[in-house]
Amino acid sequence: MSGWKGAAPYFGAMTLSRRGLLGLAGAAGAAGAWGAGTPGAVALNAPGPGAGLGGASGADPGAVAETEGAPAGRVRTGFERLAADGYAVLAGQRVGVVTNPTGITADARHLVDVLHADERVDLVAVFGPEHGFRGTAQAGGSEGAGRDPATGLPVYDTYDKSGQPLADTFTAAGVDTVVFDIQDVGARFYTYIWTLYDCMRAAALAGKAVVVLDRPNPVGARRAAGPVLQRPYASFVGREPIALAHGMTAGELAGLFAGEFLRASGPAGEAVRLRVVRMAGWRRESFFDATGLPWVPPSPNMPTPGTALAYAGTCLFEGTNLSEGRGTTTPFELIGAEGVDRRWAQAANALELPGVWFREAYFTPSFSKHAGKTCGGVRLLVHDREAFDPVRAGIGLLVTARRVWSGFAWRSDHWIDRLTGSDRVRLMVDAGAGVEEIAGDWAAGLAEFAAVREKYLLYP
Description:
Strand order of the largest sheet: 1-10-7-6-2-3-5-4
Distance between the termini: 24 Å
Order of helices and strands: HEHEHEEEHEHEEEHEHEHEEHHHH
Low-confidence stretches: 1-71
Radius of gyration: 22 Å
Largest sheet: 8 strands, mixed
Structural class: alpha/beta
Mean pLDDT: 85
Number of strands: 13
Number of helices: 12
Shape: globular
């Protein structure tokens, strides 16, 4: 699909009401220093022929040329580019938005508020993921259905819905196009990417289109890392065989999902109708603090980009009886349990893993595992982000925790297998394998994924 019927030109000629002026102000705020009417200011990409959205080399013949002269020092998100183009992609569509508190403009207003105030967009529904549209629910929960008090729009709950039930939700909401704008953190088991996947599949079933407004991978995306999921272990923390640290943006993943896994998702074998609005100014090596964008915690236990940096490794402790730091001010950077002592930090540091030190630490979680109890453990201190490999660090911590603490145990439901994507890590840790041996076990699968991933990269 190289374009949609009914796409409007830049802003166009119209008489603006107060609602329209408010929306136009929001678009101008999102556009920043570009100038909303500047030709070529927005680069949208439509799927070209072949697999997905094409690669970063510009293989997609339907893509609009990348922005020239974008201001240095700040990334322009997909939403900003959509707004600067006068929302042309959404013209004539009844729109529903899948988002959470991270869906904000450059001046920190929520995109739902901005879109609702703009006459050029017919926004009719909001869809909330895990944690909810306003982000108040803890892990494994959502806010349910209701009505947004700020806009009066109906809010539908997508959590725990997929396939036909989710397709039925889109139909009941009366939308033509589903827009996705949520900040991801780069780990396979962070569920927003699977909300995207489920929405794409459901949209194909319901005959709806999908627009993904891209945002940065906050931990950089130079490479993929970690084990690739095996399909018998698929769940909502990993639906398809991608690497644990996928090294992609949400927009790139959407292309991969469409090209590799959702080619014939519609009732008559139709492909999902997907369009990705790319960012401008983002590079794969960039960490979040280089983007110039404000950080909004995408979930209650993801308070900082530093949390996201460690998460792909330390979230593995959800599969054990140790606390992963929930209920502290530094979740996923602080790991421990009652009875753990200084020997764990010593053993972890003896591995000499690049880019990170492990400090002996003590803490008392206010909720979740070991709530109200004094725990011993480690605090990760990343001193070289370029060298740091969070997945290997997480494996190193699992290996050493089992060696030095007699109380170590896996969760009885073997949740670790869902997190790692198979039973291999658990079995190898139990057998006494070291970090390099375990990493070597997933190397072939990772290389295969890396080759597929390359086809869908949109940024240098």
